[in-house]
Amino acid sequence: MNEPDPATNPPATNPPAANTPATGEPTPSVSEPGAAKAAASVAHRTPILGLRTDIPRWLNLVAALLCMVLGYLAWSYMTSGPGEERILGHTQLPSPQETINYFPKMWDSNAPESHLFYNTVKSLKRVSIGFMLALLVGVPLGVAAGCFSLVRAFLSPLILFGRNIPVAALTALVFALFSGEMEKYMFIFIACVAFILSDTADAIRDVAQRYVETALTLGASRLQIVLKVLVPLALPTIFNSARILFGLAFGYIMLVEIVDDAMDVGGLGKLLNTNRRMGNTEVMAIILIAIPFVAWMIDQCLSLLQCLSFRWKYGRDAERNVLYQMSRGVMRLFWR
Questions:
Q1: Sheet strands (E) in the chain
Q2: What is the pLDDT of residues 215-268, one digit of tens each?
Q3: The 3-state secondary structure of 55-112, one letter per residue
Q4: What domains can you pick out in the chain, each with its CATH number?
Q5: What separation in angstroms does the CA of 158 have from each of 80, 165, 190, 218?
Q6: How many CB atoms lie within 10 A of CB 157?
Q7: Closest to 189 measured CA to CA, from 131, 126, 123
């Protein structure tokens, strides 16, 4: 047999790879590092006022501080100058300096009826007890309403009544039915229970049906589906709704404390109303500043608890929580 002539029939060679030139050296491929740089450059070019775009944390802090500074300057301008030259007189609004000078007087332990911390704790106690009663009643009923349409239809008139009645109108009702501290507890209970019931039912109904079908396929009973599928999946949404509603309830308690004429009522609402009648505008300004600050601190604590309890849903929100960032900073001092 004649052997092939190499000169006339050269041996076949494999074609070069797409990313390998004829020289045998690999070409630089456009891979993940290049894509990451491109994405970073696009993010860097994102405008500050971009539609629904995130901004850096430092810019978020600067914007919030700027708002506070502008508010302080406007307050100072409206109350600057001697008596008659002021835009707003002392009987209308005190100046920031007058408010700061009066602040230590509200920590006098010899006058507990005007003590800021004592009255704040008293108001928080009333809100907490009334709100816990609303949770104990509203959450189980909301779970039942979310699971069974017949229960939801039965409770719909109560939900409609509770969600639409003016909160101020409830004061006459609770004063007629209850007395003493029970008035405050039941006022918060009646004002919040319908919202908790409705939000809980909506959270249960928003759970995807595929989870229920999967549980049925595995042989779970109705009670197991409710307790081990629906409630755990809806619990983060229920907690978030309760956290927001608690801040509103802290504002509701001011109303019933202001309306109550008893001398020993106490609380921030009573303290505010008493000093309004006496013309102590410094106390009014301090209370109006303290209420949102206390509400913000409570919201931060509940938000931290929410992020730690439901990391799978709210884990990323922890980066915006002040207490979470402070706790991480403290831990880094001891554990590196």
A1: none
A2: 999 988 989 999 999 999 999 999 999 998 998 888 888 888 887 766 677 888
A3: CCHHHHHHHHHHHHHHHHHHHHHHCCCCHHHCCCCCCCCCCHHHHHHHHHHHHCCCCH
A4: 117-329 (1.10.3720.10)
A5: 52, 11, 11, 37
A6: 9
A7: 131
